[in-house]
Amino acid sequence: MQLILVAVVVLPLLGAAAAPLPAPPGLRGRDPEQAVLRHGVTVTGLVLLGTLALAFGFDHSRPGTMQAQTDISWIPALDVRLHFGVDGISLPLLVLTALLTFLCALYSYFSPPEGHGTSARAFVTLILLLEAGTLATFAVLDLMLFFLAFEMVLIPMYFLINRWGGEQRGPAAWKFILYTLLGSVVMLIGLLVLGLAGGTFDMVALATDNGASLGHSAQLVAVLAIGIGLAVKTPMWPLHSWLPDAHTAAPTTGSVLLAGVLLKMGTYGFVRILLPAAPEGMETFAPYLGAFAVVGILYGSFACLALAARGQGGDLKRLIAYSSVGHMGFVLLGIATMTHTGVNGALFANIAHGLITGLLFFLVGALKERTGTTSLDALAGETGAALYGRTPRFGGLLAFAAVASLGLPGLAGFWGEMLALLGSFHPADGLSRPAFLVFTALGGLGTLLTAAYLLVVVRRVCMGDPAAHENLPAGSEETLAAEQAGEAALESAVRAERGEPVAALPDIRAHEFAAWAPLAVLTVVGGLWPAALLGLTDPAVQNLLPGVTR
User: What is d(CA 239, CA 106) in angstroms, rounded to the nearest whole number?
Assistant: First the structure.
């Protein structure tokens, strides 16, 4: 088990180092670009198999215990150790990261990224570095290693946005890295305070100590500084403004990984580090965290409603990005309750958001490939984009992802938000119950607003009169060649902007089905069998919050 966990973290690094090298004879395929894309699929597939082996070998009878630990001294003078381990909190995040990265690599193999100065070797290298950093963040148990892994993902994501992004990719990439780097500088100060005041940088030892070695002032400083850095990555309102720009400009795979796994690094840090190591500091700041969380829920919902309205020029990718601000607000609200119920809800919502929003960004990216635009006004026109009639399976899956995102009972999005609200209804002892009752009411209003804007999106994009989108002449070799070259998508976008009939859209292709079906299936499984995930997280949460009774 120890070797498997280390291999899961190290293998993407080795794959990234090998990606720029020439392919061995017999593995070159049609051209070097195809060979390196296949290399990405192979490495991410092996990492996924490794995480699944880790999950099957995990002792599910004691998920609250740290397992598969490796603990080796690295920098003795600073007491920094190569300490890795996995428990019921980190295991689902490791599997989610490996799954989404593999699906992105598989999708990119059949739909290679296009961009200025594009290079498949650089693309695959960055994807693998991104995976390595994310997996390490969830696997390391040393504060300094956590910081290094946390920072490792920034440069790959910056280049993914800047090289393969759409319009405004440059400013969006710079905004992303400046916000996150500034947050990380503040976080490093807090990590040093926590480690030096606590006498160790070991996260397990700090959690076991439960703040006994830390004075109240040290806990306040640590929670404030670390919390700001984590809040930027989450993102928490009002530190969220980098996210819509980054998502709008990012390529499809960049958006999927950014929403599906990178945002989870911030909330994971709250649960893994701050809740157990600085409980008094968290208790002081919890009401403020809850207040910022519900403001984010409402702000994200109102922004989405504005973007979804006809005539506002709303962008579908930007709308989903703002919806993430609202959904991650529920995660932060659950953490702010400092209860088993609320924190379990936050961890469940983390996984559900990764599955559902990852699927949504895949679908929106594919829609842009087909039409050349993500503008709601251009897609829907006066009657709606009529995807139900033009591409029934694609439209049906988009509607499924939307209703899953709004928290329909029976799908994974429901349980996390419900448990977060239940936790805020009965917060931990010492927290102001009247304040959290207000947060509960505002969070409930946020669920209604979420349903409102997502149903508007479904009506505008999926419904409508197919006759208003008469097909252009199709079937000729010239038309097929134009579609393959991407010219048909560009022409469709121009005609859509003018309100003219657009070309026929292809329904879900085989490679798209392979990349999207696992996310849809797991969304249903998570909704119908929530105990599969809660059975892992609850014992671990109880260990991290030993003084909490509910």
Answer: 33
Separation between Cα atoms, residue 86 and residue 70, nearest integer Å: 10
Question: In this structure, what are the phi and psi dihedrals at residue 85, rounded to the nearest 5 degrees?
Answer: -175, 170
The structure tokens listed for 159 are 């280049």
Asked if residue 383 lies in contact with residue 310, where contact means CB atoms within 8 angstroms, the answer is no
Least trusted range by pLDDT, from 255-259, 371-375, 421-425: 371-375
**pLDDT tens digits along 19-38:** 887 766 555 666 667 788 88
Q: Which pLDDT value is given to residue 25? A: 56
Cα–Cα dist 136/10, whole Å:
9
What is the DSSP code (8-state) at residue 469? G
Q: pLDDT for 376-393, tens place per residue? A: 888 777 666 778 888 889
Residue 1 in 3-state DSSP? coil
How many C-beta atoms lie closer than 10 Å to residue 410's C-beta? 13
Q: CA-to-CA distance for 543 and 338, rounded, in angstroms?
A: 13
Distance of CA 79 to the CA centre of its chain: 32
Is the bond preceding 238 in cis, omega lying within 30 degrees of 0? yes
**Long-range contacts, stretch 392-396, CB < 8 angstroms, 24+ apart:** 392/507, 393/507, 393/508, 394/363, 394/366, 394/367, 394/505, 394/507, 394/508, 395/461, 395/462, 396/462
Contact assessment for residue 354 and residue 264, using Cβ atoms and an 8 Å cutoff = yes
